[in-house]
Amino acid sequence: MFISRMLRSLRVSFCFGMTERAEETRRLSVKRRPPDTDSDESDGEDYRPYVSLKQRRKQMHEKRGKIFRPGQKQDNESANRTEDEILAAERSRAALSLLDQHSELKKVAEAQKESALEKQAKEEEKILENISERTALMAASELAKGIQYTKSLETSWRPPRYLEGLSETKREQIRQKYHILVEGYDLPPPVKTFREMKFPRPVITAMKAKGIVHPTPIQIQGIPTVLSGRDMIGIAFTGSGKTLVFALPIVMFCLEQEIRMPFVRDEGPYALIVCPSRELAHQTYDVLHHYAEALRSAGHPRLRTILSIGGTAIRDQVEGIRRGCHVVVATPGRLMDLLAKKLMRLEMCRFLVLDEADRMVDMGFEEDVRTILSYFRSQRQTLLFSATMPKKIQNFARSALVKPVTINVGRAGAANLDVIQEIEYVKQEAKIVYLLECLQKTAPPVLVFAQKKADVDDMHEYLLLKGVDAVAIHGGKDQEERQWAIRQFREGKKDVLIATDIASKGLDFSDIQHVINYDMPEDMESYVHRVGRTGRCGKTGVATTFINKSCSESTLIDLKHLLVEAKQRIPPVLAALKSQNDEYLDLGDERGCAYCGGLGHRITDCPKLEAMQTKQATNITRREYLANSSADW
Ligand code: AMP
Predict the structure, then answer these.
(1) What is the pLDDT of residues 125-176, one digit of tens each?
(2) Does the predicted TM-score (pTM) go above 0.70?
(3) Ligand 1: distance of its center to the CA of 24 in Å?
(4) What 3-state class would DSSP assign to 627?
(5) Could you give all domains of the chain from N- to C-terminal order, each with its CATH number?
(6) At what angle do helices 242-260 and 201-209 cross, to 10 degrees?
(7) 510 pocket-lining for ligand 1 (C-beta < 6 Å)
């Protein structure tokens, strides 16, 4: 009885549990069922109609009293208005013609592109800052003592009175007429004749003997600048007459000193001219000698110029310096040697000329220049000349100069506009044979450039075999042979000169008809220097460059842009090349690479900078490695 009661109660409780769960399920199913469902259970008293989530949320907000607040109402209104506006804009756009829509979209895209340009410009500035020369081009003693010169040197030269009184606007008009760009404070006036520059008659006659009657643009502004005692950066294409800008004033200043107090034994030099190559030094020496001799034959005191270059006997040079000299023209290596051995002193030196300064830095003479400066004992007038002047060197130069005047005739790095530049695609194996055909393009004299000494020798041999009167020079030949070859070519005894780049830097051969680049140089500066050997001083010339698969694309793109700038014909093989810089050029930004001056790329993609940085990195690693390994020993 007891057991059956227990079982019953258990069953009841069990059944009760079952009923409760069923009831719950039923309630849920009712809730989920749509209100119109036809079912007997729909009449249940627990029935609640279906309310969508959106409505439930709205109800909740209503409950919390969030809706219909005044601010919120306004927000809603403004949201509605924006929607209206958007609709209206879309409608009006639909009303616009496709062309108008396109130009609108283009405007938006250009605005975006401009901001990308700004970003790139900032990045470029940062790179340039990192690579710019921070060590000033100053003597170590000056750096150590913190000596800074603030005033330019005084000279006795004054421009003609009527020019001195000329307003800056009038002076600027003259500069504009001759396409002279000048930067700096307190600029000397441009002077349009040699007579107004106050050169004595014998100098003017000596110039006439060389066919020099009217000053060139760089001379119009440059000579008065140097005569006024100002430091100067001269950027001019090769053949523009930049040698005379420093040579004539130096001759005049030396003459003035000699008349005041003659130079005696062991005195001098009063002026030092540093050139990157022996050939250029020789040529500069010849120019100075020509005007010094002209003055002497007219009864003026004798001015002594010494040529101090490697490859010739040092004894004669030392003897010349001991006798007392006014000017030394030197290459860095020999000059360092003389200074280190105390065979030459720079205590009296008041002029320093760095010719082809960019080449000098490029060729690794930068540290030598710094060392040379450490031998100066007082302020000097520093003149820097170059056909190309990348920004990093301009910064480097500015640190050495006092209130410099920068004179630019033609964009730094642009090839001479008087040269017709032709580019020909010639396969590597066909080059030497095609060279013979190419020589027929013009009458002699012709200059042929190649990168490698071996190529120079091969071409020389081939042309001699074919009966062409050719001579060759490169760094592997001794100085006497080099000098002989240059003399023969200059005097017109030989028709063709084949050379490596040693002949491309500032060497002046008159009337070169044709320059042939047997290969395309890696950097555009070398190309500009090579091409600049022809078309000098207003004459026109032809330059032919062989290109083929071995040329890097980046070099060819730079070449293409240089040709565009010089208004030359672009061969289809170059026209097809596209560069990252194209979009900058489209937007009128024609600066190109701030490091090497190449127009086809930006500093962010400069192969030359990359090569330099890799070289530096490997040098550092090697140095560190050597330092560590020597420490181990
Ligand atoms: P440079 O640029 O100094 O190497 O000079 C190149 C050539 O131009 C040299 O042969 C000079 O004799 C010649 N030259 C320099 N100045 C003038 C001038 N004012 N008129 C004509 N020829 C000049």
Answers:
(1) 777 666 555 455 565 566 666 667 778 888 999 999 988 889 999 999 999 9
(2) no
(3) 110
(4) helix
(5) 2-46 (no CATH), 161-409 (3.40.50.300), 419-611 (3.40.50.300)
(6) 150
(7) yes
